Amino acid sequence: SSTMSFSEAEVQSARGAWEKMYVDAEDNGATVLVRMFTEHPDTKSYFSHFKGMDSAEEMKQSDQVRGHGKRVFTAINDMVQHLDNSEAFLGIVNPLGKKHATQLKVDPKNFRIICDIILQLMEEKFGGDCKASFEKVTNEICTHLNNVYKEAGW
């Protein structure tokens, strides 16, 4: 398994950037998911209870969307806390990837989509430096999730 190579400075700036987003985890998480569903409507098919929802406003208010958005943000938050510990990081990424690959059968390209939307929202809210300091983290997350998928025979 590949180890991660974050300098102490990179870890600190990534955590600082992420903290700004995580303060409003539920709201930002819901915004990210609603954007994904709106810009990539095929992703709604994984969530049976969102199928009938067409308006972004309706989705944004949905308890299911808010709940899942918060779960996504909580998982990323756990990973961000362990950027300096590959073993702990993979201890979060591996079961998450396995569940999405085997039980939920989610196409792994959707992880990249979510990460790109998170980066986009970061830039809108907090500027380009904030986004830049978190880009390496999203690449790392997507790379490791894709590895889990390969191992699961996706």
Automatic annotation (TrEMBL):
Ranges of residues in domain Globin: 5-150
What Gene3D superfamilies would the database entry show?
A: Globins
The record ties this protein, via InterPro entries, to: Globin, Globin-like_sf, Globin/Proto, Globin_lamprey/hagfish, Myoglobin
Specify where it is mainly localized: cytoplasm
List locations, semicolon-separated: Cytoplasm, Sarcoplasm
Catalysed reactions, semicolon-separated: 2 superoxide + 2 H(+) = H2O2 + O2; Fe(II)-heme b-[protein] + nitric oxide + O2 = Fe(III)-heme b-[protein] + nitrate; Fe(III)-heme b-[protein] + nitric oxide + H2O = Fe(II)-heme b-[protein] + nitrite + 2 H(+); H2O2 + AH2 = A + 2 H2O
The record's Gene Ontology cellular component field reads:
cytoplasm; sarcoplasm
Listed name of the protein: Myoglobin
The taxonomy runs: Eukaryota, Metazoa, Chordata, Craniata, Vertebrata
